[in-house]
Amino acid sequence: MTTFQILDISGRRVLLAADDGPVVAAERDAMDLVGEALGAGAQLIAVPVGRLSRDFFDLKTGLAGAVLQKTTNYRLGFAALGEIPAEALESEALRAFIVESNRRGEVLFLPDLAALEARLAGG
């Protein structure tokens, strides 16, 4: 079974997925994360980039949209933590999506947990 850590960051309960769990490669994987988050009373799901399928970063596949729609439907925030693969960042659409997501704040793409802590603290 996947291991998670529950963190309290600036008054927000965060479900932090372990680095070594299954890859999020389909909508059902997103629902597993949502279920864990709801069961833990979390308000935000943080997932290491290494746990996200390459298809997540190819917006044409629709995987990112499906995953993020699931979290949004349950009023959960989502943060991808880590370095996004360089080949994925060749996509102008993905780069624009990341910038807009980080601006709005419900979905975040951040380099690490420290950056998430700073963001949630208002920094």
Question: Can you summarize this structure?
Answer:
The protein is 37% helix and 21% strand. The N and C termini lie far apart (34 Å).
Give, in order, the helices and strands.
EEHEHEHEH
**Can you count the helices?**
4
Query: Roughly what fraction of the amino acids lie in strands?
Result: 15-25%
Number of strands: 5
User: What class would the helix/strand composition place it in?
Assistant: alpha/beta
Main sheet: strand order: 1-2-3-4-5
Tell me, rounded to a whole number, the average pLDDT: 95
For the record, give the distance between the C-alpha atoms at the N and C termini, rounded to a whole number: 34 Å
Given as residue ranges, the uncertain stretches (5+ residues, pLDDT < 50) are: none
Fraction of residues in helices?
25-40%
What does the overall shape look like? globular
Radius of gyration from the alpha-carbon trace, in angstroms: 13 Å
